[in-house]
Amino acid sequence: MIEEFTKNEINKISYELLKGSKSLGVYPTPVENILQYSDFVLDNNIDLLNVEHSFLENLKDKSIKTLHSGLSKIKGIFDRGEKTIYIDASLEKNLGKKNFVQLHEIGHGVLSWQNDIMLCLDNDQTLSTETQNQFEEEANYFASSTLFQQDRFNFEAEKLKLGLSSVMALKHKFGASVHSTFRNYVLNSNNRCALLVLTPLPKNKGNKALCETRNLFYSKPFLKEIGKLKLPNKFGFKWEFIRDYKFKRRFNEKGEITFTSIDGEILDCNYHYFNNTYNSFVFIFPKGEKNKARTKVILQNVN
């Protein structure tokens, strides 16, 4: 867990980069401008998923100190000695993920207390919000704070109604992934809402569960007024949103469901469902919960 003092320091550095690179208020967030202003070079022509082991060993041999979590499925590398950021070529197909990884690597470079680390090798584990490594958690926080331009994200979110269509609009506006946008949306919301992220289970004979929990996020008002929900780790067909998954629905903004809190309170909710082929997102909020929208968004393109 990052201390509040450290978060404030990271936010200061992030703001100075956004301001210095003339990226504040520019949408989607111009990561290339931030990269150039940071004085780093980008190399995204390498297939890091299939890169020769000798390439990585050569990089490691030049480093004084290396921060990594294995050499498998590497998405990004920061080489301080060469002032170079390597991004896996496959991320060209996923701009939101690419932007986050680039900013994560920039974070390793601009957070001065990480200067002893000369080489960072990042995979899905280090890029995850569940990482237990302090420096990786700091780089993730920097990436999110910068990509969503700090309080600019909340300002834009407050203009929109509560729900999936607004998340998708914010995703496109800031140039982020669905996962990171949804997470940021819920964690910073002034509404009572939660986000359940599901990942498919392997198809085994006799296994009635179809999905399991990958992440579960709550807004502060939700936790304060309702508390956590009583949920299993695996979900079968009896859950309404699993029917959305089973019938291969891409999105559903008209879901209704009843939950029980860990304190035993029965809660009638609406839910919005979205599937991006990798994960299913279930956005949950109590019936009647609204955000006074100043801008209308119609969900058309969900890619």
In short:
With 303 residues, the protein is an alpha+beta fold. It has helices spanning 4-20, 31-37, 53-61, 95-110, 134-147, 151-157, 164-174, 178-187, 220-225, 240-246; strands at residues 41-46, 66-68, 74-79, 84-88, 119-123, 194-200, 209-218, 234-236, 251-260, 266-275, 280-286.
Provide structural commentary.
- This protein has 303 residues and is an alpha+beta fold.
- It has two domains: 4-147, no CATH class; 152-286, Beta-Lactamase.
- The chain has helices spanning 4-20, 31-37, 53-61, 95-110, 134-147, 151-157, 164-174, 178-187, 220-225, 240-246; strands at residues 41-46, 66-68, 74-79, 84-88, 119-123, 194-200, 209-218, 234-236, 251-260, 266-275, 280-286.
- The protein has a six-stranded antiparallel β-sheet, with helices on both faces. It has a five-stranded mixed β-sheet with strand order 1-4-3-5-2, with helices on one face.
- A hairpin with a 4-residue loop joins strand 10 and strand 11 (280-286).
- The radius of gyration is 20 Å and the shape is globular.
- The two termini are 33 Å apart.
